[in-house]
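Below is a complete specimen:
___
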Amino acid sequence: MSQTSNDFALRCTAYGNPPEIHVIEGVSETPLGSGEVRLAIDCSAFNFTDHLLVQGRYQEKPELPFTPGFDAAGTVTAVGDHVTGFAPGDRVVSSGVCGAWATHLVAPAHRLVKIPDGLAPADAVASINSHLTAYHGLIDRAQLAAGDRVLVLGANGAVGKACVQIARHNGAHVFTVVRAGTALNITDTATDTCLSVAPEALKDGLRQVLGKQGADIVVDPVGDLYTEPAVRNLAWRGRLLVIGFAAGQIPKIPTNLLLLKGASIMGVYCGGLLIQETGHFTRQMAEMFDLMAQGILTPSPHETWPGRQFADIWERFSSAPRGTKVLLGFRAP
């Protein structure tokens, strides 16, 4: 097993807030098994999942010490037996493989996706959580079709912005809800008309903008008081995409509303898709990357910090502008 003076990994030796993370220099290469690929890492994401993991608050708790990090972008340097579709020199993203906070990573080939020409590795890895959630929700779960009326709650967030772009690209009629101070702005993006209402008037405001026809699809990453008014404005056979609860409370929806509208509530969870349907996960990620490479999807804002400076990275995770992804850089200077 070889090593170089530039090789290093971040090793978590104790859970906490902050955790104990040490730089381990000159890390030896892990032998490749059948179906595995070795990557030289360019950059890795610091996701909310990673933040929970190193505090010991995630559903999985790796045995200490371990190298954190679930998402990385880099270049293939070697492939193991029975690997097809990847070769040294390929630019790829690895998602859901723990150990990404290091200069090198060994990952199963079935967890890798090639980065298309025209897309920067940092743009790709920074956008996985938000953009793949948007793509999976609209294209896979909701079966978005041209002409659908799509209401995006929290449309100024990372997932919301990606949903607006995907919906427009597919010929949908897009409506958005964005908080503006103490009010909520409801916008018909086709006509660029906007109605500003108090939060408690959201149901009636949506009815005024959407009309009796309602929304075929509601994208809901916010929850709380937003969800029920949106459900009440679903069209017949409407679909509510449950993505998250950024506004606070997890809402409780009267199921009679679904009955009367022949409507559906659909959970959108890419982590579950990765585990339960890995092939669908990687295929949808590749399709999403293609949209980004074409300029149809705008990458999430991000900033890259030297991987050795974890104390600064930890602080920046909490202070970075909302929607900005913090990345750890591992490319040798």
Q: What stands out?
A: The domain at 130-271 is CATH 3.90.180.10 (Quinone Oxidoreductase; Chain A, domain 1). The CA atoms of residues 156 and 274 lie 26 Å apart. The chain has a mean pLDDT of 94. The chain has two domains: 8-127+299-329, 130-271.
